[in-house]
Amino acid sequence: MDELALDAIRKNVTGILQNLPPEVMLVAAAKTRTAEEVKAAIQAGIQIVGYNYVQEAEHLRQTIDEPVKWHMIGHLQRNKVKKAVQLFDMIETIDSVRLAKEVNKQCTKLEKTMPVLIEINSGKESNKTGVLPENVMALIQQINNLSNLQILGLMTMGPRFGNPEDARPYFKTTKALFEQIKKLEIPRVEMRYLSMGMSNSYQIAIDEGANMVRIGTKLFGTRNP
Ligand SMILES: *Cc1c(COP(=O)(O)O)cnc(C)c1O
């Protein structure tokens, strides 16, 4: 990796951080990136690194010891939960009772409480992960008594569009759910983080109330194969 490319990453990070509203947290979506690339992003101010795969995160954590937070942003398989709860500071992709129970079980063993977001399938796409908007209340009710989980908000991907403006309704749906749940004042459930928006859509997501955005391409450039 040449110094010019790393410099470009640093510049991208600085530019985006300068233009984000102060209350919006930036998660660097680091899938396929090398430790060098991630370190360059951290040098420029990244404080949260997001991973889609447990194995990849495990590998990079061995070489990166900067004090950043690590978020799981990809679909989490139950057989990876044991590793995941050791690696991550937040799991953004809880979408079923079974997954939540497994996270709780593994966290209990470690005497650790895991902050989690509920992933919403806001586009109601049949091939996508996330809980359907109409089922989110039932899910929260079934998992909010799990002692070693702390529900702190919602996350959504939304359908991918060429024109990011088309993603707006899905961000609106998710924000409405977020507010609805907040109003209910469910014990132990806090609606603090709303994670939505990626490289091509984060400005629209922020418009619609996101306070956490997950950006990959715009920080690191086109993805490595
Ligand atoms: C890859 C990824 C992102 C970032 O996507 P870009 O378009 O590269 O910014 C955000 N969220 C999740 C869950 C991802 O997998």
UniProtKB/TrEMBL annotation:
The modification N6-(pyridoxal phosphate)lysine is found at K31. Belongs to the pyridoxal phosphate-binding protein YggS/PROSC family. This is Pyridoxal phosphate homeostasis protein. Residues 6-223 form the Alanine racemase N-terminal domain. Keywords: Pyridoxal phosphate. Its cofactor is pyridoxal 5'-phosphate. Signal peptide: none annotated. CDD domains: PLPDE_III_YBL036c_like. Pyridoxal 5'-phosphate (PLP)-binding protein, which is involved in PLP homeostasis.
